[in-house]
Design goal:
By secondary structure, this protein is mostly helical. It has one domain: MFS general substrate transporter like domains (Growth Hormone, Chain: A, Up-down Bundle). The protein is built from 15 helices and no strands.
Length: 415
């Protein structure tokens, strides 16, 4: 294993999680609660980003496989993502009335942030041997959740008004520090991460031909029945999980009337258990096997979501939040390892473009359902959010059905 690359790869997951958790928690509330934008339009930000990914990620992933330029693309996308997050931060601080402009730059920032994972996830194949994919993936996810804890701790005094920097007071104060910290910690990956040289690379690419050939390449990718079933399953169960995550701060506010300080405490507790969930599940995957691990994690989600939605006791809800953290840590550790095992090595970036698309296209359908449910049942008040959570369980159950049919080549551990 390349320990230097593993460290840099893990550090990047730590870095990007700082900016993602701060914008996930505070930008959603800044837009919906502080600025009065409807839940539906907030969720449509993710839907439009999914369409952009659909139009660009597979093509650039395919080109990266042919040219070996995945590290170059990754670096440029990371810098552009930082620039867009910076733009959102400055608009929220100094031009808070420009709500549409802030939402537009957030859309681009989130799109680029997700795009980076097309290449980032594919790096796993090249930095660790197959028998270590589970635990290395777990280390990355664990670092991601640790970064989220750090992001919450750093920005809580800013959101609560204890510390004032510049510009508009309140939640807008959190965006700029998180953005700068993200870029500073991402720089080592950009500057020092080096992949082994690849042979038989192409140097001239016809972009028009690449677009024309996407459908053929996609059909070749999913000609493997297991890949097709896994991507279909991933679309459904990830749909529910990502949609719940994106709307969770709003759920806390509108269902239980939770303060920002208590929201941060709850999320911090969930993120700490996510770290343990990610790291422990990585070791369990390498011992138990990919298929069994995936079935167990998704099966628990199917049971968990209805319990979360039906519960009306806040004390029990706090306990459920902590347990949910473990499930968050486990689900993406195992799915990334499964995708790595299923994808041919010569198509890693192209394959992970569809893994990312399956993840983000789910934010085209999931938010649409969530937004429509909260709109149609608006007269029910907070109960409409509970209905939305229970509906998400149906998506997970459909994903579980397809996962049962997936066969994954397992790696035996003898040492």
């Amino acid at each position: 294993m390349d320990n230097k690359n593993i460290f840099l790869w893990t550090l990047y997951d730590f870095a990007n999680s700082i900016v993602s958790i701060v914008f996930f928690l505070y930008f959603s509330q800044w837009l919906v609660i502080d600025r009065g934008v409807a839940d539906f339009w907030y969720n449509m930000i993710f839907a439009v980003g999914s369409v952009l990914l659909l139009l660009t990620a597979p093509v650039l992933g395919s080109i990266a496989d042919k040219t070996g330029r995945q590290q170059n693309y990754f670096n440029r996308i990371t810098v552009l993502s930082f620039a867009c997050f910076l733009a959102v931060s400055l608009i929220a601080l100094f031009f808070s009335q420009k709500v549409f402009l802030a939402a537009l730059f957030f859309l681009l920032a989130n799109y680029l942030y997700q795009f980076s994972f097309v290449f980032y996830n594919a790096f796993l194949y090249r930095i660790a041997p197959p028998e270590r994919w589970g635990r290395v993936s777990g280390l990355g996810i664990g670092a991601n959740y640790l970064g989220q804890v750090v992001g919450l701790l750093i920005t809580l005094p800013l959101a609560g008004g204890t510390i004032y920097l510049i510009g508009e007071v309140g939640r807008a104060q959190t965006f700029l520090p998180a953005t700068i910290l993200f870029f500073v910690l991402a720089l080592p990956m950009i500057l020092y991460f080096k992949l082994p040289k690849q042979e038989n690379l192409e140097h001239r690419i016809n972009l028009k031909e690449e677009y024309r050939s996407q459908w053929r390449k996609f059909k070749e990718l999913i000609s493997d029945k297991n890949m097709k079933l896994f991507l279909l399953a991933f679309f459904f169960f990830n749909d529910a999980i990502i949609t719940l995550m994106n709307n969770f701060p709003i759920y806390l506010q509108n269902v239980f009337g939770v303060s920002d300080k208590l929201k941060t405490t709850l999320l911090g507790g969930a993120l700490i258990t996510s770290i343990f969930g990610a790291i422990l599940s990585g070791f369990i995957i390498d011992r138990m096997g990919l298929k069994k691990s995936l079935l167990v994690v998704i099966g628990v989600w199917v049971i968990f979501l209805p319990i979360l939605g039906l519960n009306t006791n806040f004390n029990i809800f706090m306990v459920l939040c902590i347990l949910m953290g473990f499930l968050f840590g486990a689900i993406w550790t195992v799915t990334r390892a499964v995708m790595t095992a299923l994808t041919p090595k010569e198509k890693l970036n192209f394959g992970f473009s569809f893994y990312t698309l399956a993840e983000r296209t789910s934010t085209l359908v999931g938010p649409l359902f969530w937004g429509l449910i909260t709109y149609i049942f608006i007269d029910l008040g907070p109960a409409r959010y509970r209905i939305a959570v229970i509906v998400m369980a149906v998506f997970v159950a459909v994903g579980f059905y397809f996962v049962r049919k997936v066969q994954v080549g397992e790696v035996s551990i003898t040492s």
